[in-house]
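Tutorial sheet, problem 5. The three components below are modelled jointly, 854 residues in total.
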Amino acid sequence: MTDLAIHTLDLHKEYVVSEREAGIAAALRGLVRRQTKMIPAVDGISFDLRPGEVVGFLGPNGAGKTTTLKMLSGLLHPTAGELSVLGRTPWQRERAFLQQITLVMGQRNQLVWDIPAIDSFELNRSIYRLSPADYHHTLDELTELLDLAPLLHKPVRNLSLGERMKCEVAAALLHRPQVVFLDEPTIGLDVTMQRRIRSFIAEYNRRNEATVLLTSHYMADVEALCRRVIVIHHGRLLYDGDLSALLRSFTADKTIVVQLGDCSNDLSAYGEVVSCDEGTVTLRVPKGETARVTSRLLADLPVIDLTVEDPPIEEVIERVFEQGAP
Amino acid sequence: MSGLIDLYLQQFKTTLAAMLQYRAALVIWLIGQILEPLIYLVVWTVVSQTQGGSVGGFTTGEFAAYFIGLMLVNHLTYTWIMYEYEYRVRHGSLSFALLRPVHPIHSDIADNVSSKVVSLPGMFLAAVVLGLLFRPTFHFVPWAVAAAVPALVMAFLLRFFIEWCLALAAFWMTRVNAVNQTYFAAMLFLSGQVAPVALLPGWIQTTAAVLPFRWMIAFPLELLLGRLTPIQTMEGFAIQGAWIGLGWISMRIVWRAGVRAYAAVGG
Amino acid sequence: MTILRLLWIYLRVGVMNELAYRVNFFVRLFQSLLELGTALAGLAVVFSYTDTLGGWRPDEILALLGVYFLVGGVISVVIQPSMEGFIESVREGTLDFTLTKPEDAQLLVSVQAVDLWGFIDVLLGSGVLVVALARLGERVGGLEAAMFGAMLTAGIGIVYAFWLILATCSFWFVRVENILVIFQSMYQAGRWPVSLYPGWLRYGLTFLVPVAFATTVPAEALTGRLNTETMLGALALAAALLLASRAFWRTGIRHYSGASA
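Model answer (structure tokens):
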């Protein structure tokens, strides 16, 4: 087992939540006796990661991705199940364990706000007790890969969101961790920056063979980085395997959004009509049909605007959930 | 006019709801308001006892009476408006006040008075408890107590106007804390919070007579305690009136200048 | 030694933080001087009417004032900003970053925010102490100095543990910052000897909010009026509170990470 980077078996995490009905009587009762409910955030997950894998953890909000990540990084105690990262038990938070992992959370900063990023890097250097040689070597590599040179000496509060994220990622990797946990790292970033971060992670993994576990509810993140994907929903593992296979099986459709003048036309001949809202029609068509249906729509109807989209991830997940793992 | 009354009532309801939400903050505020006069009460009663029962025209019991009264008078006239405006300028919420067709001072006063309606029961309770513990000596004189009521109202207005002008400094400076602190330091001595004004060195007493602080706290307090002659009372009212007028004029000037400065920066 | 190393690196961060705002230095200096001036003026007025206050002579009260500023400075340099920062990090979720670092979390949390300009108060307080000691002259010997050092350390330890216990409550309750403001209100009372106050207030300032241990007790040691019971009591209380706050902290962390009780 020790050659696995991450090992989980039948992992559970339940939260106790106090429940209360509306009304004064219930409020008074609540003072004396609290009604509690067990909410399973993670409901029996098992998966293994080999060193060097880049795995995407996919699922809608509230699916249990962040909870799982927190258990793997030692922030949360599991309620039940087996769990080991690099051969150690995360929640014991041994120093040697913490020295080898890192956590990056989108939209949450560990960098000190008012000082240049480089000074926060120095802080991490001290905390992780890096030798000057190692530190500078890693810093140079990260600076090159992420174009950090113009950013390092600016106070963090003066950086744009994307620039800040680059620095956050760099700060998290200064100690060359073997396991990298990324929790929604691209959330809130513009498309260019998202791509930038993704390509960096891919390159970093290629150079350092670090194990990367990435959670996201953006399909694009996972598509760009991960060959293997784990789909989680309602705390349960729905799919663990090849990403392309998942896409083939479950995103067999494309969504076409057509803007017409009104909803008077019946477009069911072109594909499955999902909705019509003041002239904006949402159609679902099989992937292979997209080009054909699009050209027909443009030819036949007074189209004001037309876009072709992937179905939202929630729909894919719902479908995976309804139909079960292949 | 009825619109104004309605505004005050609405503000009262809003403040009341907010205060009841932040009960902890309310209690903490009260602790601070009680503790400071209490500390000086203890110090001066000890001094008085050491010196054989009286110092500078105050017996031990009269010191107790003074500081318990001070606690109430200070609380009644107290404002926190400079912190409010610093906050509003920093967070850009001043724009809302500027967009309203009513001068913002109305809702500010209403908020202040409403808060005190909630806090006064606690303060009175504290005064009663302190009275039981320290056995103050009161010399209430009926006409003086009656006169103290308008004196208190005028003291409140005076203090509010002046501190409102101070609050508007937030339009021009970010480091208003230094200015506020200087103001409070002066207030501490010149309004009779560290010691009754009569006990302060001569040159401080002269300064106190010339500045408005004395008329914000010490004057209504001494009047309430029956320590002023009718002539001193009349003089006091006159000076209060003059300062209120000055404060009101300053307010208008500073507000207009402030709005211009604020609008120039874009809010 | 880890404590010193971490304190040093966070101090560097604090310095760099503050030097970004140079004006702050002059503003804070002005404010501290104003506060000191006000306190001294108050003392002057009181002692123009009496020679002793509760058995304390003017120079002894001056020494007390020096301790008040010194300890207040230590609190404002690291204890207060770190604890306030910690409470905020629980609310914002950035505590998670601290917990994934390979250093003891309580240590990191306790030194993470250093407010450089609090040193102004430490310096001013030390200055006042030196002046007071000079005037007290030969009555302060080596023994008093040693006891003073011990009581000062114990006092700061007690205050730190007190703040930590209150701050740790933010794992369970949300609006804890308000409670910390109570300490600052009550600390004001430390400018005068706690023995001056009536019994109930003295009790509150000793056992509810440990202001007495922060200011009066070290000053008593310096002015030779410290009795053995108080000294041993302070040392015992410091040790007990530091252990208790550590245990409470660990309970808080376990609660935060959902460990079963």
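Marking note: The mean pLDDT of chain C is 89. Full credit if you identified this.
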